[in-house]
Write a structure and sequence with these properties.
- α6 runs antiparallel to α7, α7 runs antiparallel to α8 and α13 crosses α14.
- The chain is globular, with a radius of gyration of 23 Å.
- β2 and β3 form a beta hairpin.
- By secondary structure, the chain is mainly α.
Length: 381
Amino acid sequence: MFKKIEEMKHFKAGNYINQGTFKSFQPEKINKQWILENMELISLLGQADRQLGRLDMYSEYIPNIDLFISMHIAKEATKSSKIEGTKTNIEDALLDKENVNEEKRNDWEEVQNYISALNFALENLNKLPFSSRLIKETHKTLLKGVRGKHKLPGEFRNSQNWIGGASIKDATFIPPTFDSVNEYMSDIEKFAHSEDFYFPDLLKIALIHYQFETVHPFLDGNGRVGRLMITLYLVEKEILKKPILYLSDFFERNRILYYDNLMRVREKDDVIQWFKFFLVGVIETAKNSIETFDGILKLQKNVELKLQGLGSRSSNAILIINHLFQRPIIDAQIAYKITKLSLPSVYKLIKELEDLKILEEITGGKRGKLFVFNDYLKLFK
């Protein structure tokens, strides 16, 4: 079957179509064969591939790497949600609900939902491929019981939405009409899985992310789902063996550029600039993740040396440390459940970990004390 071949330098994003009282942006479909000729972009692509390869090696050589993935996910959840206006930081995200200030609980719940949604999507990749169905199920988890719960969780929108502005009349951007969403999402899905032609996977997911944000298929949560999809795609295509690359930190630190580059594609057809920005994000994020893993390895050795002084109590201390590598905030009750020691023995062990400068008390109260594994937490801040 003949397929049209298009050069990326001639990329056409779409057109504004008059809908009566407003003009919606109807994007061009992306499932076609693209030719890449920009040498600067090809060079950046090579750098990004090399850094991803280095990062992926760490997932093979770091023992118990699954311990640390939950912290990567917590960081991603706080950063991706922060782009959308939540105020939760990673320390808040690691607390139990009863330890979160009342005024922060709504934001905290949104971040917890993001963590649940990402975990759900990663766990279900084997059963559900990268698809509209998986995206909808993930979206359903994201909005469950939070501020967007009345905005069709798990369903594509059935009304017009817009970005920016108090109403559609002063909107910054108006996505395509709701009756075209299924068609666009089907096109994205076909492009993600197409074997009819080759296109580099990093550019493929960059284009998918742009198109998804342009289509804006949900009434709420599009940004968070769109960013989550990047990691899902890289894991499904086995570019990464483990979910250890998250771009939301880069996007959050460069928020204005992130939005400007997405709009630049729509307004000036400049997809090359978006690709460059995306690849710079991959390179920088992969390098930062490698530094984080180096820091984790050094910290592990340092902690192991400190624990040697505990003698027979070190085995229970190791159980606590393994928990802290997943969730670096703990209290006596959690330590009690982990070690199955008596409470007096738990308090004594926690005190010893404080004396070794592994744990630090953060509440300042006499009851309900919380302790943080600060040297580890710092690696993710």
